Amino acid sequence: MADATLPSPTETSFAPKRIGFWRGIFRIFRELREAISQALTSLVAHRLRAALTITGISIGVGTVIAIYSAVAGLDSSFAKQLSSLGPNTLYVSKWSWGSNRENWWKLRNRPAIFRGDYKALQAGMTLSEAISPIVGTQATVGIGEHELQNIDIRGTNDAFLESGGYQVKRGRFLTTMDEDIGTDACVIGADLEDAFFKGADALGGRLKVGPMARCTVVGTLVRKGNAFGQSQDKLVIMPLSSFGQAFGAKRSMTIAVVAPIGKVRETEEEIVQVMRTYRRLLPDQEDNFTVNRQDKILQSFNQTTLALKIVAGLIGIITLLVGGIGIMNILLVSVKERTREIGVRRALGARRSTILLQFLCEAVAVSCVGGMLGTVLGISVAWFLAQVTPMSAAVSPKVLLLGVGFSIGTGLLFGIWPAASAAALQPIEALRHE
Amino acid sequence: MALIELDHITKTYDLGLSKVHALRDINFNISKGEFVAIVGQSGSGKSTLMNILGCLDVPTTGAYRLGGRDVSTLADDELADVRNLEIGFVFQSFQLLPRASALENVELPLIYRGVGPKERRAKAKAALDRVQLGDRMHHKPTELSGGQRQRVAIARALVTDPSLLLADEPTGNLDSATGEDIIRLFLALHAAGNTIVLVTHEPKLAARCPRAVRVVDGLVVADGEGKQVAFENQRDIDAAAAAALAAQQQTAVGRAQSA
Questions:
Q1: What is the pLDDT of residues A233-243, one digit of tens each?
Q2: How many beta-carbon pairs under 8 angstroms link A with B?
Q3: SS3 of B153, please?
Q4: ipTM, interface predicted TM-score of the complex
Q5: Is B27 in Cβ contact with A14 (below 8 Å)?
Q6: Distance between CA atoms of residues B89 and B108, nearest Å
Q7: Does the domain made of B4-258 have the CATH classification 3.40.50.12780?
Q8: Comparing A287-301, A343-357, A413-427, which segment has the lowest mean pLDDT?
Q9: A348 touches chain B (CB under 8 A)
Q10: Which chain A residue has the Cα nearest residue B33?
Q11: Which of A290, B2, B145, B257 is the most buried (most CB within 10 A)?
Q12: In angstroms, how far is CA A295 from the centroid of its own chain?
C-alpha cells in the first residue's frame, strides 16, 4: 500500500479520458448505423435462414392487409349503395329492416299499413318535406309479343321522385292529378327504356303491365345503377290509385317520408307520434309499425364487418405470432453463433445497450423486409380479389401503415428477449465461449 | 503516480460449495511506457488478473487505479467506456469480425466513442499503416494470413490511442517466425512510448520483455527483469510461491485479528 501511493517524480498525474458531450450524443446514431449495416450483412450472409423467416412474416402481414383492404372495399361500396336510397328518407313499414327470425311472427301479426295511415301522416306531419306511399309487386311487362318478366311495379305519388332519389330524364313524372284521377300514366326506368324502345322515343308508348293494366309512358328516369346486387332501373312507376285497380288495393304499403336535412331524428319522433295517435295506441302498447332508417342497415352491416375485421385481426395476429417465433428463433441462433463476437465488441467498448441495439436491428431488419414483401403480397391479393369477384378492394395508406407498423412491432416484440439475453452476457463469459 | 496501481487485489469465485481464490493478494504498479510480461501457468490466476487489468471484470476486494481513477467499483457501462478509452486489447485468436474488412474492423472501437465516419476512416488507415498493412485494408480477415490478422487486431487496439495495450498470448496461434514479427512489432510500439502488458505462459516470450511479473496461485512471486523472472528454475519458483503464500496468510490472519 505504502509504495503504491509513493509519488513518482518522473510522471505527472493522469486525467481520466472522457468521451465528450457531443460524441456521447452522436454515438447512438453511429452505433445505430453500424448495427443496421451489420444486420443487413448478416441477413445476406444467412440468406436461406432469413428467407424462411421473412416468408412467415410476409404471409402474416399480407393476410392482414388483404383482408383489411377487402373489408374496407366492402365498407365503402356499401356506404355508396346505401346513400343511393336517399340519406334523409325514413320508411314507415309493417316490417323492420334486418329483423330476425324470432320477431318475424310478432311483425307478421301487425296491421298492414294502408291509405288511412298515409292520409294521417299527410295531415299530421309538420316536419316532412315530402311523403309518398309506396306499394310494390312484380309483374310481366310487355309491348305486343315482347315481354319481360319479374319487373318491379310501384304504385306511388308525385313525392316518390324526391324520396327515392330518382331523376327524370325525359318527359315528366307523375302528378297529383294522375293520382287523384287514376290516370294510366306511368314512368319507366332506364333498363326498360333500353329494352323496349332501344333509342326510339319512349314517350307515348303503350305498355301492358301485368294481366290487365295498360299504361302510357309519360316519362323516363335517369339510370341509377345497382344497389345490393339489384338493378334499380328495371321498374314501372304508376299512380297509387291505378295500381290499386290493377293489382288490388289490399297490399300493405311503405310510406316514405323525406326529412329536412339535419332533422331526421325529430322527424322520426313526429312520425311515431302521428302514427300512434292515428292508430289509437295506448301509452303501454308497443308500436305496431316500424320507422326504418338506412343507418339501421348500416348498423347491422357494421356488426357483420366488425366480426370480419376481428377474425381478420386474429388470423393476422396468429400468423404474425408464428412469424415472430421464427424471428426469435433465428435471433437466438445468431446470438449463440456470435457469442464471442459479442465478447469482443464488449471488450472494445460496446455497452449493453449497443449489443441490444445490434440484435434488435437484426430482428427489425428481418421483420421489415417481411413486412414490405407482405404489403406487396396483400395488395396483390386484394387487387386479384377485386378482379375476379364482385368485391371491390380499397387499399388505404392507413392499411399500409398498419402493415409496416405490425411488422416492426413484431420484430421488436420477438427480438427483445434474444437481444436482451445477448446484452446481458458477461464480457469474459462471452469471450471464453467456444 | 503510476499508470496502473494494483492495491491488495483479490478475486474469489463463489462456487456454492467451495470458494476458489483466483487472486489472493496482488500488489504492483506499472508506470507509463513500461512493457511488462505477466507470466504464469494455466490456473495461476494470470487470466483473472488480465481480465481485471482490462476492466472486463472487477476485483472482489482491493483497489485498481487506472490513470488515477479507481475502476474497481465502476458500473457496467462505465467500465465499457473505460475499456474503449483506456485499453487496447490483442487476443490470442485475433477476434476480428469475419464479414468486415480490415479497415472496418479497425474502425469499430471508434464507433463506440462516437467518432464520425471521416475521422474514423483516417485514423483507421493511419493505424493500419503503423502495422504495415496499409495495402491490405480492404481485405476480409479470411483473405489475410495469421500474422496479418494479428496485425489488424493490433491496429484495432492502437487506433483508439489507448493508455494500455493489453495482449493475451498474442503469438499463441502463430508459427514461430510470424510470432517473432509480432514480438518485434510490440517492441517497436514500446520504443514509441506505448505501455504494454503481455500475458503469457511462455518463458521465452516473457524474456523478451524488459519487465516480467510471475503469478503463482493468485500471488505475485517474482517481479523483475524479464530474462531473470522468465527463466527461474522450478525449485526457486516453488520456494518463492510457498514463501509468498505463507506471508499472505500471515498478513491475512493479522488483518483478521486486528479487524
A1: 889 999 998 99
A2: 126
A3: helix
A4: 0.92
A5: no
A6: 13
A7: no
A8: A287-301
A9: yes
A10: A11
A11: B2
A12: 15
